[in-house]
Amino acid sequence: MSQGAARSTRLPRWGRVALAISLVLLALALPRLTSSGYAINAMITTVRWMIFALSFDLVAGHAGAVSLGHPVFFGVGAYVAAILGPRLGLTFISDMLLAAVLMALLALLAGIAFFRIRGVTFAIGTLGAAIIAQLIANNAFTITRGPMCIQGVARPELTIPFTETTLRVAEPIQYYYLSLPLLFITIIIYLALTSSRLGRAFTAVREDEVRAFAVGVSPLRYKLLALTVGAGIVGALGSFQAHYVTVVCPSEMSLALTTTLLIIVFVGGVGSFRGVMIGALIFSILPRLLEAGGTQAISPALQQVVYGVILVAVMVFMPGGLDDLVSRVTRRLRKAGPREEQQP
Amino acid sequence: MPIELEIFFEHILNGLTLGGLYALVTLGLALTFSVIDLVNFAHGDLFMMGSYTLFVLLTLESIVLPYWLIIPIVIVAVAFYAVVLERVAIHPIINKSWRTHAVTTLGLSIILQNAALIIFTGDPRQTPTALTASIVSPFGIRISMQRIVVLVVTIVVFVGLQWFVRRTKTGKSMRAVSQNPAMCEVVGINVRRMATITFAIGGAITGLAAVLIAPLFSVFPNMGALLTLKALAAIVMGGMGHVNGAIYAAFLLGIVEALFGGYVSFAYKDVISFGLFILVLFVRPRGIFGRRVGL
Predict the structure, then answer these.
(1) pLDDT value, residue A216
(2) Between A116, A259, A304, which is nearest B285 by CB?
(3) Which of A247, B1, B71, B111 pairs as cysteine with A308 (C-beta 3.0–4.6 A)?
(4) Measured between alpha carbons, how far is A61 from B257 in angstroms, rounded to an integer?
(5) What is the mean pLDDT of chain A?
(6) What crossing angle do the helices spanning B43-58 and B67-85 adopt, rounded to 10°?
(7) Is residue B33 less than 8 Å (CB to CB) from chain A?
(8) Would you say A268 and A280 are in contact if contact means Cβ atoms under 8 Å apart?
C-alpha cells in the first residue's frame, strides 16, 4: 500500500529527467552566483553531508543495519590520505581510490564479523568499535600525532589529460568542482543499488531477514554489499576532506558525526533518496542561517539541543520524516488540482 | 617484575568499586530493557543528571544539607527525570521498531548532554562528601569509606531487586510484562503503568548510583555517554535479558579496567574493556552467561 502511495506522488518520467538535469545544472552554476568564499565553503559542506548521508543511508536505511561506526571509515580514509599517501607518493585521485578500496576491504572484514549479530546488538557493537577506533586515534601518538593532528596534508595537483599542465587546487571553488564528481558517482551508485530488483531485495532484508532468506535473498550478502559500498564511498570522501582542510584529527571519526548522520537521515526520511538529500541540505544550511540571522554565532551546544529536539519530535510525531511530509503535501495538491479545474 | 600485594589489592578494590558503579548503572538499564524491550541510549545521561543534582545540592549557599538527606532527594529526583522522559518521548514510540527506539533515545541523549553543557559549562565539577575524605586502611590497603559504601550498597540493591521481582505483586507483574505484554493486558495488568513504574525504579537505582559514586570521580556533561555504552556492553556480554549475567559482566569490566589501567596503560583501559566486549560478541554472540531469558 505504501508502495502505491509513494508511486502516486512520483513525477512522470520526462518530469524526473528534466528535474534531474536542472538540478545538475543548478549544482554546476551555483558557485558562479556568488564570489564569497564563505558561501562556497557552505556548498562544499552541503555536498560533503549529501555524500556522507547517502552512503550511511545505504547501510542504515536500506540494509537495515544501523551502524553507529560509519564515521570510522571516514576518519581512517582521511588518515590513509595523510599517512599512507605521501609515503607511497600517491596523487590526489589515486589517494582517494586507495582510501576507497582499503575502507571497502575493512568494511568487508568488519561486516563478516559484525553481521553475526543483529538488531540493536549490532548498533551497540559498532558503537563500541567506533569508540575503540577514536581512542586509538587519540592515543597512538607516534602514528596519528593524537589530538595534535596531522598537519600539512598536500593540496591536490591534477594533471590535465593530453596537456602538460598541472592544476594546483587551492581555491574553494576548485574544491567545489572537485567534490561534485564524487557526489554524482555516489548518487548513481545509490540509485542503482536501491531501485529495481536490488532495491526490493534490500527492502526484504530490512523488513524481515528470516523471510528474505526463505525466498532466496541472502541477508548477509546484501548487508555486506551495502556496507562495503558505503564504506568505500565515505573512505574516498575522507581522503577528499584530508586534502581539502589539510589537517586530520581524531575528531574526524567522532560520535558527533554519527549523531549528525542520524539526524540528517532520520529527519529527512530514512531509506529515501529525496529525504536524505533534503535532510543533508537543511542541516548544512540551517546552522549558517542561524548564524546569519542572529547578531552573534549561536553556541554549538545550543545548536545540538535544537537538533536533538527536532530529531525526537520527528521520531515521535512524523516517523516518515520530511520525505513523507513532502509526499503528503504533493498528494494533497494533486487531489485539489483537478477538482478546481472541474469547477467552472 | 615483583607485584606488591598491597597495590594489587588496591587495584582489585578499585576494580570492584568501578564494577559496582557499572553494575548499578547496568541494573537500571537492564530492567527497562528486559521489561519493556527498549534499549535506552540516554540511560547514562540520567546518571549525569543525578550527579549534577548532587552538585547543585552540595553547593547551595542558603542551606547546608547533610549528605544522608541529599541521598533520598537525588534518588527521587532521578526517578522523576526518568518518568518524565518515559512519558514525553519514550511512551509514544514504545510499539515501534528497535531502530526508532535507538534513534529517539540517542536524540534524548544529545539534548540532555548539551543542555548540561549550556547550564553547567564543560568544566569538571567535584562533589566531595565527608566519606570520600575518610580513608581506612585495613591490612595496609588504603580505601576510602565512600568506596566501601558503594560496594555494600550495590550488593544490597541487587539482592533487594531480586526479592522485589520475585516476591511482590508489582515485581511479578513486571516479570509477566517482560514475558508477554499482550497476555498481561488480557489478565488485567496495566502494561502502560508497568512501563512507567519500571522507569521509575530504574531511575531510582541510577540516582542512588549517582549520589554515591559521583563523589569519587568528577562530574561533566558527557560523563553518561561512556557509562551507557559500558552498561550496554555488560548487558550484551551477560546475555541480553539475563540480568544476573549483566551484573557479573559489569564487575568483570570494572576489574579488567582497573588492573589494565594500573599495570599496563591508563590511556588504553577503555580500549581493553570495549575490546573484550567485542571479542565476546564474536565468540559468544548470546553472551558469556548462556541464553536463559528472564529477570
Answers:
(1) 73
(2) A116
(3) B111
(4) 36
(5) 81
(6) 140
(7) no
(8) yes
